[in-house]
Specification:
Layout (H helix, E strand, L loop, with lengths): L8 H15 L11 E5 L11 H19 L3 E5 L1 E2 L3 H14 L9 H15 L2 H9 L9 E2 L3 H16 L3 E11 L4 E3 L4 E17 L5 E6 L10 E4 L13 E3 L6 E6 L11 E4 L5 H10 L25 H14 L3 E14 L7 E10 L2 H12 L4 E3 L3 H10 L4 E2 L1 E2 L9 E3 L5 E3 L3 H12 L8 E2 L3 E2 L2 H4 L2 H4 L10 H6 L2 E6 L4 H16 L4 E6 L3 E2 L16 H8 L1 H10 L7 E2 L2 H24 L3 E2 L5 H26 L3 H24 L7 E2 H18 L4 H11 L19 H23 L8 E6 L3 H5 L2 H7 L2 E7 L7 E5 L2 E6 L7 H26 L1 H6 L2 H27 L1
Parallel strand pairs: 1-2, 3-4, 9-11, 15-23, 22-23, 24-25, 26-27, 28-29
Antiparallel strand pairs: 5-6, 5-14, 7-8, 7-10, 7-13, 9-12, 10-11, 14-16, 17-21, 18-19, 18-20, 28-31, 30-31
Helix pairs in contact: 1-22, 3-4, 9-10, 9-15, 16-17, 17-18, 18-20, 18-22, 19-20, 19-21, 19-23, 20-21, 21-22, 26-28
This protein binds one RNA strand through strand 8, strand 12, helix 7, helix 10 and strand 25.
Length: 871
RNA sequence: GGGAGUUUAGCUCAGUUGGUUUAGAGCAUCUGCCUUACAAGCAGAGGGUCACAGGUUCGACUCCUGUAACUCCCACCA
């Protein structure tokens, strides 16, 4: 069969993914093997594959594929998150394009559109994961709004309510005026924003005096309930207890004193607006101030403002500034930069707003989850995130779980027209508990809460609810697959999601949800900016996969992703990946060329050495990879395998055993080469599944598949063979370098003289050495040889005899440089050994080592000096 | 303002409990090669006072203190 010039990834990817699916390798059911379970961090149902997913899912796939090769029953559960705000925004936008407004639709009509949209576009990201080669169990695809899942979310809400962990409360919340919904603190992004600081004069009642306050939000003065100064502030002491008048509307507000106010900021006097600022609200609570809410939910001013009613808050700001100037209330303005909160979803400036919301009180629930991480029951990789987690969990705040949205899990609270309510899953249940609780006389009419639950209130159940661990407790799947093995996720959602999953796992399964959390880095672009949709700096993954191949993309992202460190994404690493697939492909082509030339002979001594050496290197690397994998150093492990394949196998081993042109190859060499190649493919397979599977099948007729092949146990590498191999490699490199520097063309043959006391060391490798440096013969000697070119490695010296006269000037220069270097080194070692305190304190093996360095350096200096004399 | 992290070759990073030569790898660069698997390749080479300043030690990239720069998280300065 004729093999193509390069690896053609497109057809191989499709062929093998379908083959794996047909064979059912990815589908898992409980059996007697140990389970290795991973749940995917569910991407937004609106999502398309970006770099973060690519990194995250490649890592999971590497772990899962390796576990499968180690004999685990692996189960990697795919799925999507309903992402209430993001999806609802998408659907609203889609409707707007059809000239339909959300407000013109009933809730049910809107949800019909939303579900239709979800069916149509919601699966895109899952299809993209298939393109990447992910070993996901597609029989278990889950969605956070599946029937059972939905019921579990509602039931968890009711349960927490009954246990007293959920309450309804008026609180200052972050309000998104565009989406008209509450946001959690985590959904608010603070950005440095240039603003104006306005200094306003308030008259003091009954005097001619004025008090000047500074504010960035003059449009909220109509909501002022007080002016506050520091009690220690001499400037204002006489005013405390008096009243000021709000400009333009002349409302009478008290002047109060509180430590909260800093004397040296602004004027030291603060306007207190409890309805529109978190701190002012707390101050208001403390001093019993009136709460005057002057804003509508869309950010326009309402009747309570008295003036500028109906104007948007920012338009109102401009207009009121004019009015204040006209009325001589404006003292001055200053440029001022401060952090302003923006909605993560809509980018609207977040409005602090007093609102009635549902809350989970987290303090008590969090304790077992805090413990689980601190006592090591759950390991964080890298460990530095433990501190972050502890800090957060020890200061955990209550969780606002209601969202003013329709797409999501509707809050199971039912109200009568007076606002009395009960919590129940269905209307019938609600009527029953309402009747028990309130004993109404007539018929009961209840309406359900309009709001939905925060998306994270469903995703925190993910690790067990994908196995229906809550809806069908004790079922075979949950018993077998839970707790899961490793969660792979981005550090930015440690609080949103990771912490809460641990809380839910502890509360409902009485067990941790996962044994390890592996935090990936954040993917950044070449300029160091985080890759994000809004910056538009994330490349199109599907296009990259088409261009470079899935294996190359996986390689490129894995080679540059140390655990927990951010990674700068650069397309050149994908190129490196593609070049690597090509290298593997060409190694295959070489070995295939030998297929027809296998002889019945056995290996010569020299090939026998190559076989032993390769076997030892392979064992050594297998050991290393096992260690690195155990420490989650996936990037390091890949580098190690890469170098084993490229350098050791291709550059050294294959060249050593390669027969001459159209010469036969010994049967055992051929067979062992195929064996080595197969083991390399196995090591590489978790990272690059497609090409390895393809090459595995092309290498030999096979009835099984690589992805199911079990790893063979690691054997001890032969250290003596490895040392001899190093000697050989050093000699080859040194001699090639010498040839290069003396302008010997590759085709010019040489005669090689080896000056050594241990000829036997070279007997088993001499023909390899001769071939690699193009020597027509090798002679041994114990005496110096008169030759123009010589090379020193270790204790031995090599002389190159060439037919062509050699100019020795350059060589002489170089040797002299090396001599100076060596002599400098010698002095430093002698100094060290001459230091009494070193000899007294250092460990004996360290001293022995230094002595060896000393004698080695001396030997080498002698050899070089000898050479220099002959030149 | 509080906390965490980073700083090693032009770029991206290794460097495990301080002592395997005077610090490693990949990419990029340079030189020579279209050598019968691979120019997406082969054979070589050059390149770093380990951010800076002190300290501990016989010995520091590694441990301690301080400084600077960058990054992230948290926080109520209008």
């Amino acid at each position: 069969m004729e093999l193509s010039k390069n690896f053609e990834h497109q057809q191989a990817e499709q062929k093998w993914y379908n083959h794996w699916l047909d064979k059912g390798y990815f589908f898992s059911t409980p059996d007697e093997r140990p389970a290795f379970t991973v749940v995917i961090p569910p991407p937004n149902v609106t999502g398309i594959l970006h770099m973060g997913h690519c990194l995250n899912n490649t890592i999971q796939d590497v772990l899962v594929r390796r576990a499968a090769m180690q004999g685990y029953n692996t189960c990697w559960v795919p799925g999507t998150d309903h992402a209430s705000i993001a999806t609802e925004a998408k659907v609203v936008q889609m409707l707007r394009e059809k000239n339909i407004t959300k407000s013109s639709l009933s809730r049910d009509e809107f949800l019909q559109y939303a579900w239709k949209w979800k069916e149509q576009y919601g699966g895109i990201i899952l299809e993209q994961l298939k393109k990447m080669g992910c070993r996901l169990d597609w029989n278990r695809t889950s969605f956070t709004m599946d029937d059972d899942y939905y019921k579990s979310v509602i039931s968890v809400f009711i349960d927490l309510y009954k246990k007293g962990h959920i309450y309804r409360g008026k609180r200052m919340i972050n309000w998104d005026v565009k989406a008209k919904t509450a946001l959690s603190d985590e959904e608010v992004i603070r950005k440095e924003t240039k603003q104006q600081l306005y200094y306003l004069r308030y008259s003091i009642e009954g005097t001619d005096e004025k008090i000047i306050i500074a504010t960035v939000r003059p449009e909220t003065i109509m909501g002022d309930s007080a002016i506050c100064v520091n009690p220690a502030d001499e400037r204002y002491k006489h005013l405390v207890g008096k009243f000021a008048l709000v400009p333009l509307i002349n409302r009478r507000i008290p002047i109060i004193a509180d430590d909260y106010v800093t004397m040296d900021f602004g004027t030291g006097a603060l306007k207190v607006t409890p309805a529109h600022d978190t701190n002012d609200y707390q101050l208001g609570q403390k001093h019993n101030l009136e709460i005057i809410d002057i804003l509508n939910e869309d950010g326009t001013l309402n009747e309570a403002a008295q003036i500028l009613v109906g104007e948007d808050r920012f338009a109102a700001r401009k207009k009121i500034v004019q009015l204040l100037q006209d009325g001589q209330y404006m003292e001055k303005t200053e440029d001022y930069t401060s952090e302003v909160g923006y909605s993560e979803r809509t980018d609207a400036v977040v409005e602090p707003r007093l609102s009635l919301q549902w809350w989970v009180s987290m303090k008590e629930l969090s304790l077992p989850a805090l413990d689980a991480v601190m006592n090591g029951e759950i390991a964080f990789i890298p460990e530095k995130f433990k501190n972050l987690y502890r800090h957060w969990m020890e200061n955990v705040k209550d969780w606002c779980i209601s969202r003013q949205l329709w797409w999501g899990h509707r809050i199971p609270a039912w109200y009568d027209e007076k606002g009395n309510y009960v919590v129940a899953a269905t209307e019938a249940d609600a009527i029953q508990s309402y009747t028990e609780k309130y004993k109404p006389s007539g018929s009961v009419q209840l309406t359900q809460d309009e709001d939905c639950l925060d998306t994270w209130f469903s995703s925190w159940l993910w690790p067990f609810e994908v196995f229906k661990g809550y809806s069908h407790p004790g079922n075979a799947d949950i018993n077998y697959y839970y707790p899961t093995a490793t969660l792979v996720t981005a550090p930015e959602i440690i609080f949103f999601w990771v912490a809460r999953m641990i809380v839910a796992g502890k509360e409902y399964m009485k067990e941790i949800p996962f044994k390890q959390v592996y935090f990936t880095g954040i993917v950044r672009d070449k300029q160091g900016r985080k890759m994000s949709k809004s910056l538009g700096n994330s490349p199109d993954l599907v296009q990259l996969i088409e261009q470079y191949g899935a294996d190359a993309v996986r390689f490129g992202i894995m080679i540059s992703s140390p655990a927990g460190n951010d990674l700068l994404f650069d397309e050149s690493s994908l190129e490196q990946g593609r070049n690597f697939t090509n290298k593997v492909w060409n190694a295959l082509k070489l070995v295939k060329m030998w297929e027809a030339r296998v002889s019945t002979n056995t290996a010569t001594d020299n090939s026998a050495f190559a076989l032993q050496w390769m076997e030892s290197r392979l064992s050594q690397v297998k050991e290393e990879v096992e260690t690195l994998m155990g420490q989650f150093r996936l990037s390091e492990a890949l580098k190690t395998i890469y170098s084993l394949v490229w350098d050791d196998f291709c550059s050294w081993y294959l060249e050593w055993v390669k027969p001459g042109f159209e010469q036969p190859i010994a049967a055992d060499v051929y067979q062992k080469t195929i064996g080595f190649f197969t083991e390399l493919l196995q090591l590489l397979h978790p990272y690059m599944p497609f090409i390895t599977e393809e090459v595995y099948h092309l290498l030999q007729e096979r009835t099984d598949d690589l992805c199911e092949l079990q790893l063979t146990p690691v054997s001890k590498p032969g250290m003596a063979i490895l040392a001899q191999g190093n000697l050989l490699k050093e000699a080859i490199s040194g001699l090639r370098d010498a040839r290069n520097k003396n302008q010997l063309k590759p085709k010019e043959e040489i005669v090689l003289h080896i000056q050594t006391a241990e000829q036997d060391t070279y007997r088993t490798i001499e023909s390899i050495l001769a071939k690699q440096v193009n020597a027509k013969s090798i002679a041994y000697t114990t005496e110096a040889v008169a030759a123009a070119i010589s090379v020193v490695t270790g204790k031995d010296k090599f002389y190159i005899e060439s037919e062509r006269p050699i100019d020795t000037a350059a060589q002489k220069d170089e040797l002299e440089k090396e001599l100076v270097h060596l002599q400098g080194f010698l002095v430093s070692v002698e100094k060290k050994l001459g230091n009494e305190r070193f000899v007294q304190n250092a460990k004996p093996e360290v001293i022995a080592l230094e002595r060896k360095k000393l004698s080695d350096a001396k030997d080498k200096i002698n050899l070089i000096e000898g050479t220099l004399k002959t030149l």
